Amino acid sequence: MRLLKTALLAAALAMPIAQQASAATPDDLLVVAQNIDDIVAIDPAQAYEFSSGELVTNIYDRLVQYDAEDPTVLAAGLAAEWQADPQARTITFTLRDGAVFHSGNPVRAEDVVFSFARVIKLNLTPAFILAQLGWTPENVGEMVKADGNKVIVKYEGEFSPAFALNVLASRPASIVDEKTVMEHEEDGDMGNKWLNANSAGSGPFELQSYRPGEMVRFKANPDYFKGAPKVEGVIIRHVAEAATQQLLLQSGDVDMARNLTPDQISGIEGDAIKVETYPQAAVHFLSFNQKEESLQPEAVWDAARYLVDYKGMTDTFLKGQMEIHQAFWPEGFPGSYDETPYSYDPDKARQILTDAGIETPITVTLDVINSAPFTDMAQSLQATFAEAGINFDIIPGTGSQVITKYRERSHEAMLLYWGPDFMDPHSNAKAFAYNSDNSDDNYQATTTWRNAWAVPEDMNELTKAALAESDPEKRLDMYVELQKRVQEKSPIVIMFQAAYQVAMDQKVEGYVNGATSDFVYYRLVTKN
């Protein structure tokens, strides 16, 4: 039987991808094959992974949010309107009438106050996003208050209301149902354990079931304030292998495959399956932990930039999925720096190391997510870096294993990717160009801290100045300057910007995949 199954699988994968397609999923249910093993948490106060962002976006609402109709426009969410007072650093939100949680409880101003305070008091990974507004466990009760159907939000810091609104449109600003959550509190956790297996939102979908590393199932919210979703539910099946995703799409067992390789994409033929491409904000990088003495010399960083075969990868196994980009803010967004001065030049890399007196070979462990295209990228880096005597020992792991190791600063080299937490260049500038306290006990959800890089003080100061700058054009120029500095001299080698390709049944319409995982929407999907 094993031999028969293997033969059938090989035969199926050898066929053009559309040849076997036959819609077998229910008309009112969207079934997705996707690698979701990066999920560590789904409580919006803790969720900080790419896949968990999709879950939070489809389950919860925020006061203001980027929505499915146009993910580039900040629109009304649970707030029908708002009024900003820059002098008082205050924004007053008026809640919309009639919004309810999945439990049937009405959305109250008190729920908003609770949700924001909960994030700050739990102080889990994404709490720093809201803490940028000057909120602390001690003062958040004074900074966010309910007044009837209004929520009065105060903030502290040298930034404009526009920045504050973008913070409040971010993932941890999702509004949870206080009454339901606190019914499940354990040992003062404010419902954290329960919310990592259940949901308490008001969004277009309710979490019906979640089995880590196996499946997520949503059911439509018929009372959603923007109208019920077009499908009755969504099932996301965890399928790590791209080849298995391909087979499931071919056989009609799923409607959508989220992680096919470029070779698989290029093999799609016929009318049964289509491919949609979505520009992404994620940048992919190689980084070196500065706790490792052999990786501390700047010459190692400089040489590394000439040991990446950027074009070789994007012309082959990354074709259609990534483009060369060497700065931390993605192309296509205001303030991006799009120059790509580095190319593969092992002779130059060797000379840089020789001139600096660096003794080779250097052996370095390289952590990588054990799925395409990351394993292919790691093998390419292993081959090209060896040309200059830097030998990578590749350590594959699940997404959650790799990310957890990164947060612990226990890696040596890391191949990973980063997307903005909210749509403002400061989001990535703080991650790549700021680290004012590099101590082990000062955890920061930034790639600078996670690589133990003590950022030069002048760069820290420029990052703070850009955030405070009131002139929009001057502010963007400052972020360009920061990108140039990180590109030229840092232990973080930014290589690519993602372009996301999704294969789906021709019957699927209305799927929206914005520039980040927080902008993935199923509400408008139909299967005609």
TrEMBL record:
Q: Primary place of residence?
A: periplasm
Q: Superkingdom of the source?
A: Bacteria
Q: Where is the signal peptide?
A: 1-23
The record ties this protein, via InterPro entries, to: Peptide/Ni-bd, SBP_5, SBP_5_dom
Pfam families to which the protein is assigned, alphabetical: SBP_bac_5
Keyword entries, A-Z: Signal
**Domain Solute-binding protein family residues, every copy:** 76-439
Q: Which Gene3D superfamilies match?
A: Dipeptide-binding Protein, Domain 1 (3.90.76.10), Dipeptide-binding Protein, Domain 3 (3.10.105.10), Periplasmic binding protein-like II (3.40.190.10)
Where is the protein situated, by its record's location annotation?
Periplasm
Q: Which family does it belong to?
A: Belongs to the bacterial solute-binding protein 5 family.
The protein's name in its UniProt record: ABC transporter substrate-binding protein
